[in-house]
Amino acid sequence: MRTMTASNAQNNFGDLLDTVRREPVLLTKNKRPVGVFVSLEDLQGTYLAEMLIEKEGGYDEWVQAKVGKSLARFQKDGTRGKAAADAHTDALDNIRNKLQNR
Q1: What does the alpha-carbon distance between residue 2 and residue 42 come to, in Å, rounded to a whole number?
Q2: Global pTM?
Q3: Average pLDDT of the residues in 10-35
Q4: What's the whole-number mean pLDDT along residues 34-58?
Q5: Does residue 74 carry a pLDDT above 60?
Q6: Contact 39/21 with Cβ under 8 angstroms?
Q7: What percent of the chain stands above pLDDT 90?
Q8: Residue 49 has pLDDT above 90, yes or no
Q9: Which CATH class is domain 1-42?
Q10: Are 41 and 49 in contact, with CB atoms under 8 Å apart?
Q11: Would you say residue 42 has pLDDT above 70?
């Protein structure tokens, strides 16, 4: 597994995408691991693949619907006066709750 710093990934995003197609990439920030990038092909047969790929109407349509819904909600409510970090934390908590309740 290749390791890449967050700043290197940001500055060389195309390289990150190309590498992920070949092998998982461990992303670090301040010398600490923060995430792993994997290709959709590597996720096949996992719970995450079921969440992302096997949607009725296809993955692209599902993503467009989800992103469109999120953008519409954001345009209507914005962050409701919250700081960006608080809005981000709330969004992650919401995702974690959904995953735990499945």
Answers
A1: 15
A2: 0.48
A3: 93
A4: 74
A5: yes
A6: yes
A7: 33
A8: no
A9: alpha beta
A10: no
A11: yes
**Contacts (Cβ under 8 Å, ≥6 apart) of 36:** 1, 24, 25, 26, 27
Nearest of 50, 53, 23 to residue 38 by alpha carbon: 23
What are the structural domain ranges in the chain? 1-42
Which H or E run contains 29?
strand 25-29
Of 56, 61, 90, the closest CA to residue 73 belongs to 90
Instruction: Compute φ and ψ for 36, nearest 5 degrees.
Output: -130, 130
C-alpha distance from residue 86 to each of 3, 43, 44, 78, 82 (Å)? 29, 30, 33, 12, 6
DSSP 51-93: HHT--TT-HHHHHHHHHHHHHHHHHHHTTTT--HHHHHHHHHH
Residue given tokens 């990150």 in the structure block: 16
* 46, two tokens: 């996992």
Contact 33, 15 (CB under 8 A): no
26 vs 92: which has the higher pLDDT = 26
